[in-house]
Each structure stands twice: as C-alpha cells, then as structure tokens.
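As a warm-up, study this chain.
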Amino acid sequence: MRIIKCRHLKALASDKRGNMAMIVAMGMPALIGSAGLAVDVSQWFLWKRELQHSVDQAALGGAWALANPSSSANYKARALQEFNANLAITQGFTSAPSIALASYTGGTDNSVVVTASATKRLPFSGFLMGGPATVTVRSQASFAAGKKYNACLIATSKTGTGIDIGGNADVKAQCGLAALSCDAGALQIDGSATVRTDSIATCGTASVPDANKSVVTEHVQGLEDVYDDLPTPDSDKGSKTYSCDTTGTGSNKTKLATPTPGTYTSLVVKCTTVLASGIYVIDGGTLDLSANYNVTGTNVMFVLKHGAQLKFGGEGNGNKITLTPMEASDFYGTPYAAQADRYAGILVFEDKNNNPSNPGHQLTGNSNSLIEGLIYLPSGEMSVLGTADVAAQCLQISAYKIHVKGNASLETLCPSTDSTSVGVSGAVVKLVA
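Now compare it with the structure written out below.
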C-alpha cells in the first residue's frame, strides 16, 4: 500500500498540468484581491482629485471675495458656492467644508483655508478594513486687496521715460509721483537731484537713488489718466485781446491789465495783470506769464488749443504769480455743470490734440510763484527749468512728460488724500498650499 501511494505522488509531481492547476487555484484569491484593491484605489484617486479641485476653487473664491471690501463679509458663502459647484462624483458623501482665515507669510488673516473629506464604503476595501474609506484634502489661498494710488506729479505717456528729474533739482512732493509708462526707466531720478515724496508708482520700472527706493512700487497695473474722458471746456465770451491801460494821475501813473474771460490768440503779460474769474481759451498762441510783472487770477481756468503753449515763471526776481482754479460752483449754469466736480480744481486744461511744438510748456525763471490747482497737459511736455522757485499749498502737474532740471525748486504741500487719483492696482490672489 505504501508503495502504491508513493507511486501516485511521484506521478502527480511529474504531471505539469496538475501543478499549474494547483498554482492557479492557490493564486486566484490574491489575483482577485489585487484587482479589487486596484479598483478601489482608483476610486480613491478620483475622489481626491475632484475633492482637491473643489477646495482649491473654494479657497480662491473666498480669497477673491476678501480682496474686495464690498464682498469681504460674504467670503464663506462664496467659498461654499464654489465648493458645491465643482462636486460631481463625490456629491452625496462629502462632508461640509471647513472654511477659515489663516495668517500667511507674516500677514494677519490674509489667507483662506478650506478642508473637506469624502467617506464611503467600497465592496472590497470595506471588507478588508471592516468599514468605509475616508479621503481628506486641504487648500489655502492668500489674498491682497488692490491698492489705491494718488499722485500730484503724473506723467501720462504710456511709453518711454515719463518723469525725469536731474541736475541739482529739488522736488518736495509728499503727495506722490506716478508714471503711466510701462517701459524700463519710466521714472528716473539722477544726478544730484533731491526728491522727497511718500510714494512713487510706475507701470514700468523706476531708476531712483537709494534714498527713494523704499517708496517705489513698480509694475503697477491699472494706473490711468482719470481726466482722459473729460471734454475740453470752451468759452462763450467771444474773442478778446490783452492790453495794458494807464491808471492813476501825474507821476503815480501805472500800467494795469484787467483781462476778462474769453478766447485769446495769445495772452502775453506786459504789465501788472489782474484776471477776472472764468475760462480763458488760448487758441494757437502762447499763454506767457513769465515777464517781470505781478499776475493775479482768482478762480480761473486756462484752456490750451491748436498748438498753444504755456510759460509760467519770471524773467526777473521781482514778479509774483498768484493763481487759483475755479470751484465747482463756478461751473453751475454753464454747459459743464454736470461735470462741475471734475472740472473744479483744474487751473490749466490742455486739449488732447493740442500737440505744442518744441520746447513745449515751461515753468522757468526766478519766479516767486504761488500756483494752486492742477496743470493738466495730456499732449504736451512740461519742463521745470533754470532757477524756477515754485511753492504751493496744492499744486499738481499731470503732463504727457515732466522734466525737472537745473537748479529748479518745486514744492507742493498737497496732502496725498487731496491729490489726483491714478487708479487702483488689481487684487492679488494665489494658491499657496
């Protein structure tokens, strides 16, 4: 009997077909288990991918809401809306997301963190683990609100160097400088020039001394000329001419000009001049207030058209220019009443097609000037040259390009809150984890 059993075992051992059947039978549970586990793992990956996309979109949506002050209170609702909108496969077995603020890179509550999980029992993994599988994801998005920029020295050119300050020029403009050019060197301060300001903003880059680098913001998107859409004012007072009349008697006779609003081919000061309030249109000629005479104008606006050029300053040390712009109430009852608040404060308004020939507009000479308001020159370049000495409570210059050279001294005490808006940079939102 023993011999017979041994023969059967030897025969079985030599039968390759029988061995293969046994191997297959023994490996089948492992094969089926591996296939089942692979199917379940692929499901987990699908859950995780969809869930991660959902929390990413939720974090970004909440961060964008917080970057906008008008919607910041609704950031959780916005995040939840984005989360639910991106669910499909996991809808029905996903937990409500956790949405919270968190501090990021030194900031305080400047990011949104969203976490969520999906829990479900699958046939094979559920049998092995004795319960459901859970996939958990997390996303974090930082945000920074857009910044509002104001300036009182503005170059509206979109190309090249917009503001160039050099020589021994001394500029005091805490209210800010801005160059809308997106090119390299959009704003340059060189030589021995001194600039004191709280803000320098450029669409391009700025080349400035070390003393000014801390206030420079480059590559600012959204800078704009806020007066670009404002129509050029005109005068309905007819054509006028400038003349000096003799006043007084005997040896006390003096020459005095008292021009009134209207349209002038040129207005070149030749004696002491007192301007009546209103709009003065300079059509093709020169507005020259640089002679050695006192000039006074309260609540006035000068409009430059058809190549007209501006020259403020003085050829000697004795003259004084005192000018203030029109107020909103001065435009009531005129064709510009609807835009009165925007025209108010503009001392010089240049037509966008004025295109003055070289040397453009000048602020020059030994002038003790008190000039208030905005000098708006969107098609011309303004040069502050020589020994110009300009001091003002709130003087602003917005020109195609601005050059301050020589020993020029330009000072404006305009608060940044009262200076011209040059736009708001876009909010910055990004996924960080």
